[in-house]
Amino acid sequence: MTIPVSLIEEATGWRRELHALPELGYQEHQTSHRVAEQLRAFGLQVHTGLAGTGVVGTLENGPGPSIGFRADMDALPITERGEPAWRSTRPGVMHACGHDGHTAMLLAAAKHLSQTRQFSGTLHFVFQPAEENLGGARKMVAEGLFTLFPMEAIYGMHNWPGLPAGHIAVNSGAMMASLDAFEITLRGRSCHAAMPENGADPVVAAAQLILALQTIPSRRLSPLASAVVSITQINGGEAINVIPENVVLRGTLRCLQADVRSKVRKMIDEFVTTFTAPLGIEGSIEYLTDYPVTKNNAAEALKVRDCALGLLPAEQVHWEVSPSMASEDFACMLEACPGAYFWLGADGETPSRPLHNAHYDFNDQLIGKGIAFWSALAEQLLPRR
Fold first, then answer.
1. pTM of the model
2. Chain centroid offset of residue 300 CA
3. Residues 237-262: pLDDT tens digits?
4. Considering only CA atoms, which of 156, 109, 160 is closest in space to residue 347?
5. Residue 83 to residue 287: CA distance in whole angstroms
6. 255-270: b (≥16 Cβ within 10 Å) or e
7. What digits encode the pLDDT tens for the residues 250-300?
8. In angstroms, rounded to a whole number, what is the distance separating the alpha carbons of residues 189 and 104?
């Protein structure tokens, strides 16, 4: 499929504009306004306000099924360290995951399809807020995404460092792990650091608990099960000579199988409440975020693969790849509607910086490829009658 060079250049401009003006989850007011403005200019019906800053643009072209394409819009609370001309102008906020590129590619696909109309049916272009740990997809679903915009299937794309630029990777099942973000509170009894016998030390309990939790994936599960338990924050103490009253640990659990997830969550709960008790510490846990496994429907995944094979050489289409232990709230949309999530390779002549890296920048060489793939997928799924 040939995409006009002028459209690729226009989309590149949009991408860089978005990169310079990043907005955090549920704060994408300027981004949302810009997206809605463009969709209206393309002649689409536009619905705003879903999940606060979400936007849905609808393009109807004759009878046929209805399908959805989704892009995420939010940035991350990271200070950009790279020096592109379109560097973030907002201190402490940057597009370190490529959502600026995802938004620009889907916008451009909407424009191209509104002009060519080589399909029969209805396309919903879903621009989602708050993908990064805030559950924007779940909120869109809860506020009626699939009731207001009935769809036979929904599809999501993410750029993927580690895969050559323009390659497509998709699985018939799991693509990304589930996510449980948690906060553990260890309540002890403070005392002078020179007289620990007069208190109950939550710092020592925290140290032992962190190590004990690592035995869950290494010793309590089959090596064939997939689970990662990571403690990423430790907070406690105020004075150097005082054993603190409380220590708070935060971290994540990620799994690729629902039964493993349930089993490990139960083990973590037991460790927190029983492992610390002999140390005189009361432990409790609160789960802050939970996303299911990002699991594709086999039929929809095959459609993505077939579309990729129609555009690319077979060696550039990767089927049944190793899933990532990272997580994606598009999983919440896939729980409510059949669909598929796939990766678009991001590595050019030199490897891309990792996602969420302060030097990351979306590879603009992908923009034409992404527009072409979305457009081809629409035409394949909604053939003209």
1. 0.92
2. 19
3. 999 999 999 999 999 999 999 999 99
4. 160
5. 37
6. bbbeebbebbbebbbe
7. 999 999 999 999 999 999 999 999 999 999 999 999 998 889 999 999 999
8. 54
